[in-house]
Design goal:
heterodimer, A: 278 residues, mainly alpha, two-stranded antiparallel sheet, B: 203 residues, Rna Polymerase Sigma Factor, Chain: A
Chain lengths: 278, 203
């Protein structure tokens, strides 16, 4: 909306152009209708006419001097070889960058080299787990306590002194087998009713009533079927694998072209600016 | 010699012929630049650059109104210069007024060495007021207003000069007139009676 509250913006533009006689015949007819219908149109047109007269009142300023050109001023504004070369370089790098980007974007199955391990970790760097377990056990030995229990009860279930001659009478026969690791020392029978074994095995499998096994000790009834052991956390430091990022030629090319374009374009712009200021 | 003949010779490298064209249009280019820039020094630079640029690119002139083509170059130079000045303002173009309302300094283009009679002073003040109202316009509105209302160009020439369609020229001119008219009401005491807004059209 125009600031003249009684006329719309369109009507004001119509009156303005009518003043300059820049309307088509149809628009001129519309303007005449507007002037006849709206009592505010005629004063507005009169104000516009006065404003134009006022603006034409501004005196023409006298030129301070002649602006005719000398031969020196009329010399063509040609860029130097340096500027020309930089422009060409920036143009070529822009074209090349476009091509490379197009290849990079439009070829979806371009083989992207995967990171590869440069070399396997040397075996000597891999710690000997067995040695570590030994060392750990030497510090904190795993202790198993077995106490005597009545015949026919307990882990040995069904075991009988009569079944295996030479075994301790009345002792249960737990089935202890080493599933991983190797027992290096035979369990030592310390006591008939409470035996302690120091073992280096990683796991002890106690079987219930699956037949008699070697007699290792006798447990009390309250500790039947309860083989307690301590978990010894073992941290095995593994060597860091060494990877080498493969060189992506396309990416390197893109970076190089962007840099080349930016530098050459900026240099050409600065030279041109300096030349035009001279 | 006719304008077309001078243009043809200038295109062939005849600097003398081109300078004839310069003499013919330098006043219009300079006045446009002065009104646009409100600074005679900048207007001088713009005018000189306009003619240099016109000579160097004369081959691109394909006929039509040479004045419109020349003023287009001048207008573009003014836009560039206005942008540069806006980035690096150097001098206040308007009179500096102290607290009591006394004018301390005139714009450069209004300075006059002689003793001024009262009537001349009033017309100068009115001129300054008009220029101040024009200065408040955006450059694209200012250019159209100067070309059409001050320099008397028609809409077609103005559209060539500012490289915009006729409808845009019409719209910009109407808006520019509206704003200048409202601005001038702030200087109503300077305006002759006939130039004040008529009742019925005011807000």
């Amino acid at each position: 909306m125009t600031n003249f509250k009684h006329l719309t913006d369109k009507e004001f533009r119509l009156l303005s152009a009518y003043l300059d006689d820049e309307l088509t015949e149809q628009e001129r007819e519309n303007c005449r209708i507007l002037l006849a219908a709206n009592p505010h149109a005629a004063p507005t047109l009169e104000n516009l006419r006065n404003l134009r007269s006022l603006l034409r009142f501004l005196p023409e300023l006298t030129v301070p001097h002649q602006f005719t050109l000398t031969h020196l001023e009329a010399q063509p504004d040609r860029p130097g070889w340096m500027e020309l070369g930089l422009r060409v370089l920036s143009g070529l790098s822009a074209v090349a960058l476009t091509v490379v980007l197009a290849i990079d974007l439009l070829v979806p199955f371009r083989s992207v080299p995967q990171p590869a391990m440069v070399e396997s970790a040397p075996m000597e760097d891999v710690p000997d787990v067995k040695t570590m377990v030994e060392e750990k056990d030497a510090e904190e030995p795993m202790v198993f306590n077995f106490q005597a229990e009545p015949p026919g009860m307990g882990l040995g279930g069904g075991g009988s002194p009569a079944d295996k001659p030479g075994q301790i009478p009345g002792a249960i026969i737990p089935d202890i087998s080493i599933t991983e690791g190797e027992m290096e020392e035979e369990p030592v029978l310390r006591d008939e009713t409470q035996e302690t074994f120091e073992m280096e095995s990683a796991e002890i499998d106690t079987k219930g009533d699956q037949g008699p096994g070697p007699i290792l000790g006798v447990r009390p009834a309250e500790e039947q079927a309860d083989v307690s052991f301590q978990e010894i956390p073992i941290e095995i430091p593994l060597p860091e694998p060494v990877y080498e990022q493969p060189l992506d030629i396309i990416l390197v090319l893109e970076i190089a072209l962007v840099t080349m374009f930016a530098v050459s374009a900026l240099a050409a712009f600065l030279i041109r600016r300096k030349r035009r200021r001279l | 010699m006719e304008e077309s003949g001078l243009i043809k010779q200038a295109k062939q490298g005849d600097l003398h012929a081109f300078n004839q064209l310069v003499l013919r249009y330098q006043s219009q280019v300079y006045n446009l630049a002065c009104r646009m820039m409100s600074d005679t020094m900048l207007a001088d630079d713009v005018t000189q650059n306009t003619f240099i640029s016109a000579y160097q690119h004369l081959q691109s002139f394909r006929g039509g109104s040479f004045r419109a083509w020349l003023l287009r170059i001048a207008t573009n130079n003014c836009y560039d210069e206005l942008r540069r000045v806006k980035r690096k303002p150097t001098q206040d173009l308007h009179p500096i007024v102290n607290e009591s309302g006394e004018e301390l300094e005139d714009p450069i283009w209004l300075t006059d060495d002689g003793q001024l009679p009262e009537e001349f002073m009033q017309s100068r003040e009115l001129e300054a007021a008009i220029q101040r109202c024009i200065d408040q316009l955006q450059a694209k509105f200012k250019a159209v207003l100067i070309m059409v209302d001050i320099q008397g160009m028609n809409y077609k020439e103005a559209s060539i000069a500012v490289k915009s369609p006729l409808g845009t020229i019409r719209s910009r001119l109407a808006r520019a007139r509206d704003r200048v008219q409202r601005c001038l009401q702030n200087f109503a005491e300077l305006l002759p009676e006939k130039y004040r807004l008529k009742d019925g059209s005011q807000q």
